[in-house]
Amino acid sequence: MTDKRLEDLGERFSQIAHHYDDKHGGEEKPIYNACASLVVDHADPRPDDVVLDLGTGTGLIALALAGDAGHVVGRDISDGMIKQARAKAEESGIENVEFGYGEFRDPRYDGPVDIVVSNFALHHLPDEEKREAIEVIAELGPRRFVLGDAMFFGSSDPEEPLFGHGVDSATVGMLVDVLTDVGFAVTAVERVHDQVGVLVAERAGDGGFTHP
Ligand SMILES: C[S@@+](CC[C@H](N)C(=O)[O-])C[C@H]1O[C@@H](n2cnc3c(N)ncnc32)[C@H](O)[C@@H]1O
C-alpha cells in the first residue's frame, strides 16, 4: 500500500473515530463481538507479558488485555483512532498501555514483544502485503500471534458477502500457509462465521503443534 493510500485510509478512520465504538450495528455486531472476545481469550497474556496490538483502532483489544498483561502497545495509522484509544485509557485509569502511530509492516516498536494481536484490521492490506505484515510480525519474535479478521472459510467469492468495500479478505488456507511459512504453528482455528475467524499461531517449540 502506498503512503498516500495509507494516509487516506487513516484519515477515513479518523473521520469516524468519535463514533466508531457505536457503529457496529445490525448483522455484523454479534460477529464482531464474538471475534473480539475470542482474540482476547486466546491472547491470554501472563502478568509480565508485553502485548502488541496492530490496527488497534480505539483500543478495544489493547484495553481489554491491559488488566492481565504487563504492558500493552497499540499501533494504528489513524491519528483520530489513536486519540480515542488514549482518551479511553485515561478515563479508565489504565496506565500500562501506550498508543501511537505504527503500520503493520513498520510497527515502530523496538522493545521485546511476547504476544501480537490484531482484530479486524489486516483485511485492509492486499494479500501480498498481508504476507509481508506476517513476516514482520514473526521477526518481532512473539511466542503467540492471535489474528481475528474477515477471512474466507468457504468460497472466496461468496454469494452473500458480509462485508463491502474496503475489506480484502484472505482465505483461511492462505493465512495458515503464510503463518506456517514464517515459523509459527497454527494451534487453533476458530470459525466465527463463514467469512470471519480467529487464528492462533504459536512459535513451534512453545507448546504448539506443527501444522501438517
Ligand atoms: C475496523 S478497525 C478495527 C480496530 C480494532 N482492532 C477493533 O477491533 O475495534 C481497523 C483499524 O485498522 C487500522 N489500520 C488499517 N490499515 C492499517 C495498517 N496498514 N497498519 C496499521 N493499522 C491499520 C485502521 O486505522 C483502523 O483503526
UniProtKB/TrEMBL annotation:
Membrane-spanning ranges: none
Keyword Secreted annotated: no
Highest taxon of the lineage: Archaea
GO molecular function: methyltransferase activity
EC nos: 2.1.1.-
Keyword set, alphabetical order: Methyltransferase, Transferase
Lineage of the species this protein comes from: Archaea, Methanobacteriati, Methanobacteriota, Stenosarchaea group, Halobacteria
Protein name: Class I SAM-dependent methyltransferase
All copies of domain Methyltransferase, residue ranges: 51-138
Native species: Halopelagius fulvigenes
Pfam families with a match to the protein in the record: Methyltransf_25
